[in-house]
Amino acid sequence: MDLRKIADGLSVSPQVMPSDVPALKAEGFRAIICNRPDAEAADQPGHEEMSAAATAEGLEFIYLPVTPGIVTDETARAFGQALRDLPGPVLAYCRTGTRSATLWSLSEANRRPLPDILGAAKAAGYDMNGVARRIANGGRTPTDTGDAKFDVVIVGAGAGGISVAASLRSRKCDLDIAVIDPADIHYYQPGWTMVGGGIFEPRDTAKTMGSLIPKGVHWIKAAVAAFEPKDNAVVLDGCRVVKYDRLIVCPGLKLDWAAVEGLEETLGRNGVTSNYRYDLAPYTWQLVQGMTAGRAIFTQPPMPIKCAGAPQKALYLSGDAWHRRGVLKDIDIQFMNAGGVLFGVKDYVPALMGYVDKYGADLNFFHNLASVDGPAKKATFRIAKPEMEPTEVRVEFDMMHVCPPQTAPDFIRVSPLADAAGWVDVDQATLRHKTFDNVWSLGDVMNAPNAKTAAAARKQAPVVAENIVADINGGSPVAQYDGYGSCPLTVERGKIVLAEFGYGGALKPSFPNWLVDGTKPSHVAWLLKEKLLPPIYWKAMLRGKEWLAKPEKIRVAAE
Fold first, then answer.
1. Is 487 among the catalytic positions?
2. pLDDT tens-digit map of 323-336
3. Where does the FAD/NAD(P)-binding domain start and stop, copy by copy (predicted)?
4. For residues 25-49, b (16+ Cβ closer than 10 Å) or e, as one string?
5. Topology of domain 257-406, CATH
6. 94 among known catalytic residues
7. The whole model's pTM is what?
8. Which of 4-13, 133-142, 217-226 has the highest mean pLDDT?
9. 4-136: what CATH class?
10. Which of these is catalytic: 34, 94, 250, 307?
11. Distance (Å, rounded) from C-alpha 443 to C-alpha 458?
12. Hey, is 252 helix, strand or coil?
């Protein structure tokens, strides 16, 4: 155990195990505080297991979890109260001890001089300079004044963030706009399916972030820790505060690999891959090329996920490659879908079922991936069919393509901007926040019931830009989003089922039926995906050129 005394009566440490508790008692500790949320890692004991171990040794136990990067003022106050209430000495732990040290530093803000707090933390091996401003502010996040102020602040520089920044600049070039994002690289994620199918090169799906931020837009290269919308403030890691007149929230989704036991440890090896990661998509194609016989599993988690068709796109392109090489008859393809349908818009299902039959794939509905044993090449699925008791099945595999569970990022889920399910709460037509009038959202993180695709963000960006400009000019929203999303389903090399639809599954074709019938496989749609969409993304969408994406005006009822 790595126990670090930080003050009289308190030590902090990285993760401790139930088997460590007797030794902690022998060291004289009388209470334990757990600051690590459950399920951060597969080998991590849950707080209930730790509590039981502490109780067995006569130690008191408190669970006070802290999401990484989000140490709230309330949690710091609760930590200080716990130290006053618990018998000492106390051990507080998280993954590394940093969150516990941070909580102590903030809770002591009104009791000790700032240099003493920083010095005690440093002596224990923890650098608290990043929260020095909060400590100096009495342990509270200072949002009354900011380190910077902008007309519009955009959180997230993905497809939605850069597009809406460019659309705003094209409408009102004098706006002072900042984009907040810590990433160095921007990815064209729709291209990763094609990388996994051996069609695109990985390097063609990535560009430096700095080359894409629109001219005149400030790039703040930092992570967001919290929102204080009542103070029109965004709090960054390190407690810097950025103030805004209007805020746009579009950080994308969190890929929750850790939600599947054993998955993180085996990704990229043991035949386990995913086109949802830049570094893994090439491994998908490597596995497909090397496979001549055996079982290939393709998984799809519960909705919502980004690009709901992506899990089966991987299946179709793999099946087509095996068909072309003449080995398909020796490969057992299993599609494990946590949902109950192949595709959510029924008009496209007949064409897709034709390819399911062509590749001899078995459809297993209500099968949700629960754990993976990579070295043994076995996967466990939880089966939850309606009106039936849940069961589990363990399936052997030679190759497995995984679509990870997906959630809103932690800093969104715990924020005042989120609905009960953790998504940014917006009006589905205007994309304006339902509570805070100067906040908008687009992309995967908001709660409108549309498909989470780059094509959806392409349509949403002009709507948000138009409505913000109208708001700046003192008017009401003027543009509305109809739920448009597009999913080019790559059913074989050279053919695509071009699914385009809006709210409620209404078909929203972009082209006349004689050119592209979206309900049938089309070579023209393939050419669109392979040749036209990448340059449209890089050179039009991200530069504010709204080809086939002009915002729809709000229709005002006649009086």
1. yes
2. 999 999 999 999 99
3. 150-270
4. beeebbbbbbbbbeeeeeebbebee
5. FAD/NAD(P)-binding domain (3.50.50)
6. no
7. 0.81
8. 4-13
9. alpha beta
10. 307
11. 9
12. coil
